[in-house]
Amino acid sequence: MLWELIQTPAFQRLRRIKQLGFSDFVYPGATHSRFSHSIGVFHTARRLTSIIEEKLDKKIDDDLIKRAQAAALLHDVGHGPFSHAFEAVYEKVGLPKVDHESISVHLIQDDQIAKILKPICSGFAEDVAQMIRPGSQTIYGAVVSSQFDADRLDYMRRDRLMTGTQNAAIDFHWLLANLEIGNVPNVVDDALIGYQELFVLSTKALQAAEAYVLGLFQLYPTVYFHKATRGAEKIFTELIARLITLSRESAHARTGLPANHPLSCFARAPQSMERIQALDDTVVWGALPMLAQAEDATVAHCANRLWRRELYKCIDARARLDKLPAEAFEAAQKSVTRKITDWLRENPGPCPRILIDGGKDAKREAYSEYKESKGLQNQILVRSEEGEYADICDYSPMIKAIKTYKVFRLYYAKEDTEAQSFIQQVIQEELNNVANG
Predict the structure, then answer these.
(1) What tens digit of pLDDT does each residue of 256-271 get?
(2) Hey, which end of the chain has fewer CB within 10 Å, N or C?
(3) What single-letter DSSP state applies at residue 369?
(4) DSSP string of 249-303?
C-alpha cells in the first residue's frame, strides 16, 4: 500500500518542490525536496511506532500503527510551490487561505490517494487525514503531530545537513533511546478528567532534550528566517499576487504567459485545489523567463529579480529598535509600519518600493509552556525516577529563559536611495521620540 502511495502523481510531485523554498539562494546545498523529507518522516515514524510496540503496556493496535505510518508519509502531499511563501499570497490578495493541510486532507479523503486508502478498510482514509491535523489525542497520533513528532525530528536534521550549518545538532539516537510512553494525568480547571498516553523522556535525556529545543530554535534565525530567503519570498508573493490581480481585471495578456499555462489557470481560480496541485517549483522557474518579458511592470520587475537573484537590500529594523523597552518597541514597530504604508501609497513603484517583513508569521518561540487550550501533546514531559511528570521548563531554566525571536525587516531596491533614506528617517524618528519622552 505504501509503495502504491509513493507512485501516485500527487506524491511524485513532491520531487519538484524544494523543502526550503528559496534557501538555496543562501545555502547552495539546500536543494532537497519534500519527497526526500516525506520518505525520511516515514522512516522516523517507523522508529517511533517501534517504541510504541516495545513500551506500551497494553495490546498494540496494528491498524492504528499502519494509519500513523501512512499519515507520516503523506503529511506534506498538499504543499504548494515554495511551500509556506505560496500560502502568504492569499492574505496579500484578500482571499481565505488554502493551506497545505487542507489540500492534503482533500487528496487523502477524496482524490487519487483516497482510491488506494479507502479499499483497505472502512474509515482508513478518514483516520489518516485526521492524524495529520494538529491536536491528536492518541499516542499513535503523536507520531505525526506532537513535540516529538516524526516531521520535526526529520526536517531539523535534514535541513541542518543540507544547509551545512553547524548549529542545531541533536543526539537523535539518545533521545529515542530514552523516549518512553507515559500515562499522564489530564487536568482541566484543576479537575482530573482522565489520562492520556504520551511520549515522555527519562531524566537521562534532559541535556539532549535541551539541545533539541535549542537546536530547533536556532534554525529559525540561521536558516528559515534568513534575511535573503525572506526577501526572495516577499518578491515571490508580490509576483503571484499580481498575477491573480491581473486575472481579476481581465488583463491576463499583460502577464506574458499563455492562457493555458498552469500559473494562468491558477490565477483565474486560486482556491481550486486541482489548480494548486498543477503547480510546483519547476513550473514557476520555467515561467520566469516569460514573466520577465511581461508587459506589466510589476510582473516583469519581480520575475527578473527572482530569475537573476537580484534581491532587495535589507535593513534590520528590529536590531535598530531593540534597545527600546518591549512596550515602546511594539509601538515603534506599528508606527514605522504605518508611516511606510502611507509613504508607499504616495510613492508607488513597479513593485512596492519597500517590502515589510514583520507580521504574525515573523516570530518563533523556543518552547511554549503548557496551556490547557493546546492540550498535552504540545509539551515535552519528563518522567522522574519517582514516576512523576513535569514540563521540561521545570527542569531547564535555560529553556524557560529563552525569549521569542522576532523579525522586523525592511527591504528596498539597491538603486532606490530615496526609499532607503525614508526607512532610516522613520526609524530614527521613533528612537528620537522615545529618547525625548
Answers:
(1) 999 999 999 999 999 9
(2) C
(3) P
(4) TT-GGGGSS-TTSHHHHHHHSTT-HHHHHT--HHHHHHHHHHHTT-SSHHHHHHH
